[in-house]
Write a structure and sequence with these properties.
This protein is an alpha/beta fold. The protein has ten helices and eight strands. InterPro entries: AB_hydrolase_1, AB_hydrolase_fold, AB_hydrolase_sf.
Length: 270
């Protein structure tokens, strides 16, 4: 992987393939490694760009700068550094939140937007919201990153035939810097741009696993707020859809990208 510096943070990135630029952005506590089942397929037709979000993977773990908006500005700096022009964007979980932020702040930089198992806001409004937050907040602080990783891996990949995935994900999670992870988790809570997503006009696909943390109905509601968005539900999948259903996921994304590239002709901003 290559690296460049932005706002005092060294950010690692990788490029593969040629064609229209396609950014893949990972989720909380993860890294660009988790797109391993997409790279070969997507790079056949696209210039695939991966970035480790600050505090994750091989990127620096600074003491400050953990906000969704900051992650979005890091992405913009990378695209300017690479001279990509407008890109297709695919973001998983927290990476999808960065995608929403990027879409409302920098619409001219997007050819299309694909959001995977994510949302345009994480607000503590109801009692259940506060209970969810307190449980996650407490466990993240009380447990080691190794213990959190094992618990998440077991929840994401519960099938007997997913034993290798469980082992691999638990091992990767154990490499997290706990301070950076906690700051990134805090960046999600009470963030939101839902009141602005009606401005997103580029082709948009929201992918939801049928067994994601949040119900499909929640995605249906926010998809209805965007003028050029559609929803795809992938069955027998949990939060890590690119890993537990890679073939269906890859086909769904590639069909969307092909249609988005054909329909745009001359690019129009989001």
């Amino acid at each position: 992987m290559a690296c460049f510096e932005h706002d005092g943070c060294l950010l690692h990135y990788q490029q593969l393939g040629q064609g229209e630029p396609l950014v893949l952005l990972h989720g909380l506590g993860s890294s660009s490694q988790d797109w391993e089942l997409q790279l070969e397929v997507f790079s056949r037709d696209y210039r695939v760009i991966l970035m480790d979000i600050r505090g994750h993977g091989q990127s620096s773990k600074p003491r400050h700068g953990y906000r969704i908006k900051t992650f979005s500005e890091d992405l913009l700096a990378l695209l300017e550094h690479l001279g990509t022009g407008p890109v297709h964007f695919v973001g998983l979980s927290m990476g999808g939140m960065v995608g929403f932020q990027f879409a409302v702040d920098h619409p001219a930089w997007l050819r299309s937007l694909c959001i995977v198992n994510s949302a345009p806001e994480v607000k503590r409004r109801s009692r259940s919201d506060w209970v969810w937050w307190f449980k996650r907040w407490s466990l993240a602080r009380l447990l080691s990153v190794e213990a959190v990783g094992k618990g998440l891996a077991a929840r994401l990949f519960p099938k007997p035939e997913q034993a290798e995935l469980r082992r691999k994900m638990a091992e990767r999670w154990a490499r997290n810097d706990k301070r950076a992870y906690l700051k990134s988790f805090d960046a999600i809570v009470d963030w939101g741009v839902q009141e602005r997503i009606g401005q997103i006009n580029c082709p948009t696909l929201v992918i939801s696993a049928d067994r994601d943390y949040t119900p499909v109905q929640i995605k249906e509601r926010y998809v209805a707020l965007m003028p050029n968005a559609k929803l795809a539900v992938i069955e027998d999948s949990r939060h890590a859809t690119p890993l537990d259903q890679p073939e269906v996921f890859n086909l769904t994304v590639l069909q969307f990208l092909a249609a988005a590239s054909t329909s745009q002709g001359s690019l129009r901003p989001c």
